[in-house]
Amino acid sequence: MLLRRITYHFNDTEGRYGSPKITILLQREGHQVSERTIGKYMRELGLRSCVAKQFRVNTTDSKHDLPIAPNLLNQQFSTAKPNQTWVTDITYIPCREGRMYLASVLDLCTREIVGWRLSDRMTTDLVLGALDNAYHAKRPKKGLIHHSDRGSQYASADYRKRLVKYRMKASMSRKGNCYDNACIESFHSLLKKEFVYCTKFKTKKQAYDEIYQYIEFFYNRKRIHSTLGYVSPVQFAARFKRKVA
């Protein structure tokens, strides 16, 4: 019975969970098992999480004369409530029909992807689309800190005007310091290692449809996070709604 439950959770997450997370799920079902035991059983079953090695494509064009915002975030990655600090970045998505780029906006409190946009061009419209989606979905109050790298898309006049319209405070990483935007880079790394590099996108439509499924249904609503007490971002965010009610 335990082997069946291990196999179920492994297949239910499309092979993305290893022994640590499967152990948590089994313990919640009432099984008194250790991670070491589950790891042993998974090896016997031939189950191994589908995590692929990552390669990097530079998506930051910081060689420009556009205004640079101060680093308001300063690596303070913990926030007390949702919609106080958002971090954003662009990443490359390989596709046989042509390269694509994903812009994502992440809430530092809940780790939820509150907005995203996929396009075949790394333009200001790409990041504006992700920001617009996030704003219309969450309607944050005045003063939200919006943190990004120094890319020309985020430093552009159109993007700065949109932040003013939404009453957000612009914040940017220090030059050449990837740790200043570590949380959103961590999400993109996770997306690549447990999904994108394990999948071959033949068409751009397939890439959009499957990334939509991963972000909206798996990552936001289902994937448990150790930093959130092993619940999903949507489940964690729901706790704040109950407090307000």
TrEMBL record:
Residues 78-241 form the Integrase catalytic domain. GO terms for biological process: DNA integration. This is Transposase. Involved in the transposition of the insertion sequence. It comes from the Bacteria. Gene3D superfamilies: Ribonuclease H-like superfamily/Ribonuclease H (3.30.420.10). One of its GO terms (molecular function) is nucleic acid binding. It comes from Paenibacillus albidus. NCBIfam families: transpos_IS3 (NF033516). It holds the Pfam family HTH_21.
